[in-house]
Amino acid sequence: MEGTTGRSKSEMESGSTSNNNESHIAFKEGPWFGQFKNGSNPWMARYVYGLIFLASNLLAWAVRDYGRNAFPEMERLKNCQGGRGCLGAEGVLRVSLGCFAFYFVMFLSTAGTSSLYNCRDTWHSGWWSVKIGLWIALTATAFLVPTFIIQIYGEIAHFGAGVFLLVQLVSVISFITWLNDCCQPDKTEDKCHIHVMLLATAAYIICIVGIIMMYVWYAPEPSCLLNIFFITWTLVLIQLMTSVSLHPKVNAGILTPGLMGLYIVFICWCAIRSEPAGENCIRKAEASNRTDWLTIISFIVALLAMVIATFSTGIDSQCFQVKKEAPVGDAVPYGYGFFHFVFATGAMYFAMLLIGWNTHHIIKKWTIDVGWTSTWVRIVNEWLAVCVYLWMLVAPVILLRCRQTNESA
């Protein structure tokens, strides 16, 4: 009897678990609205979080550029000091604080989630009316806190934005390394060598063309010493990465330094583009002083690129792991805690872009990430990217030599 009872209990438990899994599978295979309503698809949930993040970006931009016309009632708030404390750069920080608080709450409530079909997985993938209401409430509350708290948050946001750039940097290098490993499997070796050479050649050609164009656009005169230094040093760093990668003791191939070259050329271009308008070394700087369709398109592209970068970095929860592993069984498809942590630091990052990394800097309408502080942040990020990449190449050689020395001793 006891054996029969135990067997029936186990069968009931396995049956209930099977029915639970089948219901989740049915939800995931159903229409997208059903998946959204029932919170059964964490892959779809990430897009909703991305849309919330995009809405915060747009709200921060609207408060900065059109706050006095679009939100005149803010001037009556006690903490706004006639609009000065809730509009402009401080208004951006208040929206950023609300967005950061929302994703930080989500980080605390989902960190450590390892399996699907539990309450924290449901909270991450569902309960959208509650979470959207929470986001709105936290954003509204940010406009009620005293000014000195916003100033403290602005200082902390500099550090948080730096953390975001570091995480994004590691994610990019991890992706480049993964792509290089995928292009060099054991099978069909000859065919893969051709693909690697074509990709590497294309990458180096684009790097050279990009550097030449930067010399033409941003260093038209010999007196443009700073821009010449930025561009020339980028070329030197590409040569350095290639030399170290091709060293016999490293032997990392030619593809990864080519892709890293594309990355640092892009960062260098963004850094020089961040220089304030009106500089003699920026060709057509006079035209950049007025808002035209090209300025608006550049702003929209930069804003979307920042949102996409945050989104893509957030789902790469394995970029800090030595060995990437695919989720098995009912394991979560990506780290929920890491995902929300990246978005929380991304909230600080978009605030720094919209105020030019300076709370006292006046930003022109339809501009993003403009100012000398922004320029140097980009340049330091470029140099740091090269240092991290070179360390990833050299570290295994150094560790191997140290191990051999210890064994011989």
TrEMBL record:
Q: Topology with regard to the membrane?
A: Multi-pass membrane protein
Cite the residue spans of the region called Disordered. 1-23
Q: Which UniProt keywords apply?
A: Membrane, Transmembrane, Transmembrane helix
Which Pfam families would you find in this protein's record?
Serinc (PF03348)
Q: Does the keyword Protease apply?
A: no
Where primarily located?
Answer: membrane
Q: Which InterPro entries match?
A: TDE1/TMS
Specify the superkingdom.
Eukaryota
Q: Where in the cell is it found?
A: Membrane
Q: Where are the transmembrane segments?
A: 47-66, 87-108, 128-149, 156-176, 196-218, 225-246, 252-272, 293-315, 335-358, 379-400
Q: Which stretches are tagged as biased composition: Polar residues?
A: 13-23
Q: Which family does it belong to?
A: Belongs to the TDE1 family.
Q: Which PANTHER family match?
A: OS01G0179800 PROTEIN (PTHR10383:SF63), SERINE INCORPORATOR (PTHR10383)
| Protein name in the entry | Serine incorporator
Q: Which organism is it from?
A: Gossypium arboreum
